[in-house]
């Protein structure tokens, strides 16, 4: 089932019907056993919403599926990411850092965004004006509730500056954290079943009407389990409203590619749908 965060509240899509759930977003998604709770609501008489209202909400009134949570991110969880970081950081001498973290017991986890810096479906994400080499990073993103239980999944876009990170690994926060540097959406895919390794993650980038990049991979390519990543994140931190965790990029465009203003990035993950973001530049910094 898909749960959309809309202007009119939580909209549940299940078996081709829609239901408006009249509960605050944070309290709803933080419930243990969210899937059974929502199923039970439908089975015990939650009235279906009108199709045209639901379509309008999903097309025109969608928020990212986040309330008052932090967004964290894991790094170097796919071979593709390790190789790309090693390539971009050759001149800084930091290449071995990425190799080592890929094989280390402890994963790389970093703070990515407060909700106020997150863009939703069909919204703009920014590239930095002081960065010459910018990419989107398509990442299966977990929603983990305050008890450390994974309740659902969404598509994540971990916008990144490869030139800043490549210059010096200590610049990672500047390469990763800035206005509108994270995309989440279009919905929370609520399921109690583990995600299949066969789940496909696809990224398409369009410039005008031309496709300038497309590639696809499967979740089975990830080096670490989601419970392992979640376990490290929750070791010494409490998240009263739960938190989002991007699980690392599995696709990286070739080294001669950089995003331009106006490009459109589409990240699709089986079961969740497609998150579409247009690339912009913060007008304050133009
Ligand atoms: O090590 C730097 C960031 C890694 C990352 O964001 C990723 O692998 O997705
Ligand atoms: Mg990333």
UniProtKB/TrEMBL annotation:
Gene Ontology biological process: small molecule metabolic process
EC numbers for this chain: 4.2.1.141
Superkingdom classification of source: Bacteria
Annotated ranges, domain Fumarylacetoacetase-like C-terminal: 107-279
GO molecular function, one term: lyase activity
Keyword Lipid biosynthesis in annotation: no
Keywords for this protein: Lyase, Metal-binding
Family: Belongs to the FAH family.
The protein, known as: 2-dehydro-3-deoxy-D-arabinonate dehydratase
